[in-house]
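Researcher: Let's continue the batch. This sequence belongs to DUF5666 domain-containing protein, and it's 289 residues. Same format as the previous ones, please.
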Amino acid sequence: MRRIGLWLLILSGVFLQVGTVWAQEPSPTATPAPGRPALVRGSITAIGDHTLTLNTERWGALEVQIREGTRFHVPGFVQAGLGEVRVGDRATVHGRWIEEGRSVEAHWVIVHGPVQVRRGTVERIDVAARRLEVKTRAGEVIPVEWTEHTRLHITGVISPTWSDLGTGYPVTVIGHFVEGTFLAGRVISHRPHRLFLGVLQGVEGTTLVIQTRSGEVVRLQTDAQTRVRIPGHPNATLADLRAGDTVAARAIGNPDGTWLARTVIARSPKAPRPASPGPRQGPPPTRRP
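Model: Same format as before. Here are the structure tokens for DUF5666 domain-containing protein:
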């Protein structure tokens, strides 16, 4: 009996200690202590110079402080920072609690959402505002915004700038939508190509004036890399072209909407066509006996 009483006394002490510990544990809605690890999720409602406000379901509005070492992950971006975060984004913040749990110091800010791709042509571009409009293949016009971390690639252009991108350029934009605007992490493009067939109206300095078969009059710029080919003239130049020549000009688009001729093939309407080879002459074939 003494042993049973002793065991009951020991067990009651253990339960008393456990109850005391449970009573000291914070409730699920209690504010975490400063310095403890933080993992919070919510929607971004405001963005400052070095802070953002995250509206969470559990803690309400939290101030997230951005430090120099804070890292960001934004869909579509190879490299990102606070400048790539937008109001309306849903994000997860990893860091630590500060200021009595009402503020979080961010180590990681992860913006949620799938990486999306849109293809089309440039309808309008405003370099100063960092915005352009893209008309997709389905006919939809979407506003596109870029940042200092958006990567631009234009085939054939070394170290391209946004001034090298022009209206009518085909583009592929990679990023995600934020409240109706496409935030692009990468923009891939190439200069448009076009073949002009028609009659040369004249040469004005270094510009060719061509009337196409459809009746459209176009002006094509030329430069030192423009090649001119005329049958019978191995080293032809612009000076050898004449009004009335039939021309086929391959050109690429410039950012300002003009066209630059790369190759011009011309033929005078009076120039004789090369004679087609006649039947082969030679001794008649012999038959074997």
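Researcher: Any comment?
Model: The chain has a mean pLDDT of 84.
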